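Input record (one chain):
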Amino acid sequence: MLDDRQNLSMNSSLPQTMDNAPLCYEFFNGSCPKLDYPLFLKVPLYIIFGFVVILTVLGNLFVIITIFHFKQLHMPTNYFVLSLAVTDLLLGGFLMPPGLVQSVETCWYFGSLFCKIYNSVSIMLCTASILNLSFISIDRYFAVCQPLLYQTKITPFVTLIMISICWSVSIIVGFGIIFLELNILGIEEFYYDNFVCEGACVLLQSAVSSTASSFLSFYLPGIVMLCIYMKIFRVAQKQAKSIQDSKSKNMQSSLSKEEKKATKTLAVVLGVFLSLWLPFFFCNVINPFIGYSVPPVLIDALVWVGYMNSTFNPIVYAFFYKWFRKAFRMMLSGQIFQPGSSRTNLFSH
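The corresponding structure, as predicted from the sequence alone:
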């Protein structure tokens, strides 16, 4: 994923042409120009972004604690959810705070080495988050469409292999692109001439890099998820029709309710995923082909919209279900500290 936080435009890296513009480092030669927002705008931005950070960290931390604590949740499906929650927790705790400062102050104050690490982890975590969603959809496919084969196909060992693949690919893509400078391959001179100055942390990508990384981190997993969910929806429709043709009204009523819940869940999952990440990745691909003319403020906003997926994941994949809400109430009331609470039956009414 490209965290294309372009808080500098092509011309903004040329401070000698902007003598009266504020600088990131006032007394440092070669400092980047700074877009100095007024205080009445900075304060609301810090509050809003700060709330998103807190919500992301607490929401995913709750999911992690819940799955670790309750033994009933120790199953392959929830291991995927746990991996997703760890990914999103790291995104909220590691990426969002520096990104918050950079977005509001329009300068990078954390050094060039941490900038590389930050951009690498950004690509890694966003890729891992999306790949985790893809593996969850595969898990759901076997659970809904092949229930008799589910326990033999999705074993704890297979789950571990899938999660390992997710993180391995994400680490290789994230750190490989940045530290090997594959993102600027072929445009090195253009990058150093126009985007490098003190106080900048710009992740620029060439046309080949942006297309390849976007395809691997978004479009391919997105297509896989879409195909799997369409298959699940068709199978569910056939099951519903079969039930309607049966003579058991009780069974029809019961399964129709479950069918509506499953359909609603899939719609929310797919809708949130596509709506939050698609705008950014669309701009990410076209930006190199139009001379990097997409406004940096717009790209920064789209990055945060994409980050919001990590904020909503605990809601979509966890709080949507009654047993997670029950675990949440137990946590708030302190019942999880009572002896034997880890063996509580969360699925009972």
